[in-house]
Design goal:
Layout lengths: L1 E4 L5 H12 L3 E3 H11 L4 H10 L1 H16 L6 E3 L3 H7 L6 E5 L2 H12 L3 H23 L11 E4 L5 H15 L1
Amino acid sequence: MTVSGHPGSGTSTLVAGLCKQLNWEMLNGGQVFRNTAAEKGMTLEAFGQYCIDDDSVDKELDQMLTDAMLSENSPQIVESRLAGWWAFKHQLNCPRIWIEVSEEVRANRVVNREGGNEEEQLALIRERMEYDGARYKQLYDIDIESKEPYTCIIDSDTMNAEQVLSAALEHLEAYS
């Protein structure tokens, strides 16, 4: 199964709940990114800039996720913004969940988690979405806003973590 969504959408929270509930293993694309930055002795910001300057790094990290998904020893859940797309493009028969949430709610969540104010966070979210959207289009011809690859879209604007988990579990049961 894959879980995807924009930053601040709650994918990590959902995956943690699924892993606990189902005793599943997971691979987190964001953690792969953070680990690679640490291995290179770089801050996340510096590594992000490094990726901008050398698009082969993004491609290498995305290939690692794809290889893991295609492996016989694949974890039950792969979480990343493009995991659903990779499963779709490789015709993997698995649930592909997208967590949909408004920019405003995501900004509020980031403020609650990291501080700052909502206006600043909203501006950063919009800037990142524009940059990431252009990058995914250029690298892979993917429109990150398209929901084509997903078997389930959970609109979590008015849902708490338990409700999102419940919706995902219902989808898994129906998908089986």
